[in-house]
Amino acid sequence: MGDFSSDPEVRTLSASGQLIPVDTIAIQETDEDYIGRYTGAFVTTDPFRVYIADIQRHRVAVLNREGAIQTYIGAPGQGPGELRNPHTVSVSGDTVIVNQSYGRGYAVFDTAGTFYRTDRLPEGSWSAGSTPFLLADSTYIYPLEQVDSREQGLERSAEHTTMARLDATLNVIDTFGIFPELYHGFSHVSTERSADLVGDDRLVVGYDLTPDVQLYDISTEEYERIDIIRLEHPEFKHPEEEVTMELAGDRDDLYERMARISRVHRTYGFENRAVVQSFHNRTAAYYGRQRDKSEQEHFAIIGHLDTNQQEALSLPGPILARDDANRIYVELDPTPDQRKIGVYEVVGWDN
User: Fold this and answer.
1) Per the omega criterion (within 30 degrees of 0), is the bond before 47 cis?
2) What is the DSSP string of 102-141?
3) Hey, where are the domains in the chain?
4) pTM of the prediction?
5) CA dihedral 29, 35, 41, 44 (to 10 degrees)
6) What topology does CATH give the domain 10-35+123-346?
7) Which residues contact 334 (CB under 8 A, 6 or more apart)?
8) Cα(243)–Cα(119) distance, rounded to whole angstroms?
9) Cβ(305)–Cβ(273) under 8 Å?
10) Mind listing the pLDDT tens digit for each residue in 2-26?
């Protein structure tokens, strides 16, 4: 895909030529049933459910189409079936996988909330990403490294694989994928990846510090990288210096450097060959004020896998999820008791 020859116009959701508004979900909350803090969601369409991993209340809230909380999966705690800091949720058939922070493992439930077990990655494997588990050919695809991402001074190279195929209990079948050149020879602490499927034979992978998207052919066992989709946005701030673990000792310097870069939030792929890369810009105050949502701005790029057509967007909030009907779910209002999620069909350029 070719690069832009000049900065594109940045459009709002209402002015987008590639998105069609189809619904608004107003989350219904009461003093007893409410949602705390979250970073994303998972949406199923048959039946329609929105699964939200609530980091603050340590459970998964399950919403219906009207925005009512139908049930909860898990409860606060550290025992069987209890959750601590859940931050992503994936649903595959009747199986719900909840990823917890701080190495607490992946709690597995059914959609009725029955707890099955807790799985863990194999020793020596580390995940780095906000991607739900992707089911492809009866195996899971997930961001994973064979090295500890927290290790100070670790420089990435073309030999570092970044993704893995896992079996049903999270044993590694094989690894694939490489870091973009931006990371080669540098020790950037921001190494998160995000991935999504495009049909049955393609995978798109995005990286934390670049708007570009890698395209993989997953129709063969090699999972070969076949293209790099060059995306651009006038508001994307590319890193001009390393942001390393060593800076953790000087919080002010760390926050200032983090405020000078954009960070990719999620990468989404669609059946119509569209790809959406969402990212955010944050102020130094965001990192010092307990993640105040008013201290960040949200953006997205919509591109096409086969052409150089792109559209740059500003968003009122993060993209929380996509479903299997070419729709994305955008947070319109994060205010407790007033939360709203907008639903938009990604029509792309083929229609």
Assistant:
1) yes
2) TT--EEEEETT--EEEEE-PPTT-B--B-PPPEEETTEEE
3) 10-35+123-346
4) 0.93
5) -40
6) Neuraminidase (2.120.10)
7) 293, 317
8) 32
9) yes
10) 344 445 799 999 999 999 999 999 9
